[in-house]
Amino acid sequence: xxxxxxxxxxxxxxxxxxxxxxQAGAVASPSLPWPLPALLCWALAWGHWLGMQSLGxxxxxxxASAVLISSxxxxxxTSRWRRLMIAAGFPLSFALSGLASGWSAVWWLLPLVLLAxxxxxxxxxxxPLFPTGAAALDGLDELIDLPASARVLDAGCGLGHxxxxxxxxxxxxxxxxxxxxxPWRLIAALRCPWARIRQGDMWAQSWADHDLVYLFQxxxxxxxxxxxxxxxxxxxxxxxxxxxxxxxxxxxxxxxHPGQRPVWIxxxxxxxxxxxxxxxxxxxxxxPC
Length: 289
What we know:
alpha/beta; two-stranded antiparallel ribbon; 9 strands; 33% helix
């Protein structure tokens, strides 16, 4: 068992450690000013539609695939209204162009069918497609002592953003992902060829053999994750949750970068309810408990 897990329970918790310095190796990710991201997404959708037409693909299928692309890109936007504007931009401009005159209504339903295939109804209760920031997990290696070639699971890996962030922190770990959507799983496998990614149900997959499980879920699904971690994860393993606290487990620490979502860190010791309060919430800090 790592030394960091043998802290005597009689000792008082150490003081919070301020973290105001830039993370080593962190690369700034410039953001494009609005509405440039929307314009680029619309242009990409139109370029895809024109390219499909040049290849002789039918108008309806070209339209459906372009809408699917713009809808997937819309999920990367930072707010609900921006996602809506990006997703609706191409079909509205297509309708106003007159190209859709005389179309059957079934063509307008086809993109919804394709989206349901990419993101099936069964997965709607889990987190939507919100990617993990490239540097969101930087600094975890200073708080979590993983053994060499540790098995790290991204439960619900989506398009692989979380796996890439985990690799920045632990490049020698055996990274694995599981994703219910077959298209997302294929894309994640292409983006992360160094990881083992499977298609399946993250709630049916056992977490018992993993040294660390990473989650970016919704508040509604976190109680289920807590129950699963208590039931399956062995003492000495770690549970890491981006943004949402796993209430019922005592936090080991909370990592907070400026302008980033908090990262909650849990050391699995034994299955018992948490007592007392969690760590204090200070921006730009690491709060060991």
